[in-house]
Amino acid sequence: MSAERKPSQVEGVESSVVTTIDQRRSSNVATEVAAQSNDAASIMSVIIQVAANPNVDVGNMERLMQMHERHVDRQASAAFSVAMVSAQKRIKPVTRNALNKHTASTYARLEDIDRAISPIFTEEGFSLSFGTADSRLPGHLRVTCECMHAGGHTKLYQLDLPIDAAGSGGKTNKTGVQANGSTISYGRRYLTQMIFNVTTTDDDDDGNSGAPPVEVLPPAPEALPPYPPEKFTENFPKWVAMILSGQKTAEHIVVMLGLKASLTEHQKKTILAIIAPSQEGAAS
Prior knowledge:
The chain is of the alpha+beta class. The protein folds into 2 domains: 127 residues, no CATH class; 108 residues, Double Stranded RNA Binding Domain (2-Layer Sandwich), CATH 3.30.160. It is built from 9 helices and 7 strands. The strands form 3 sheets. Strands 4-5-6 form a 3-stranded antiparallel beta sheet. Helix 2 packs antiparallel against helix 3. It starts with 8 loop residues before the first helix and ends with a helix.
């Protein structure tokens, strides 16, 4: 009488693997964030099923949790980049309509820049939080900005500026409080321009000075048929077993599948999120 074979952890969760179809990115941030949550939920559903197995190995459980965390971080970082590209594409040059009497030059005030671009970057899911920190440079103040995205990713920017206590002639013309306030205002303006690549101009024509050149695109190549979601769900446990056993890498499977059919971004991310134990050290 042969001993009954216990199902492996991978086999134990085969029936629980659920996939979703990645829709085209909407300009609505709430829709984008919801799509990211669905992606993460696919892996989390596998983790929940594994955790329900009384024979689950703690080491494997920890690797699954780390894999989920990396997947969520990658999604948030990717959403940040996509939104930043969209925001910078929509932001137009800001007019320099303020006059610096000391240098006889024009500049764009912080409030003018904010009024022009904040409706755009907030619609893309961004928010800015400014602060200060000690600078390693003597006589300087470090101005910081946390650029946060609704998808969960945050990027820190910082700028060291000399404390603005004197005028263009080098004579002190501000109190300590005024000098710090002026330096922070400069820092906020320059950091905002740096983060969203804002340019300034003397021309106030709302960007309507001539029609943009017509871009001629080459003919699109013949598209491959989409990979069927139901077939993806059926084959996914097999790919997981192959990756975890070291027979194939996730990248190899994505490339091979892409030669025959078109994978959605979600399908690619779901496969690439599976990391073999031998790759754990390199991934971390």
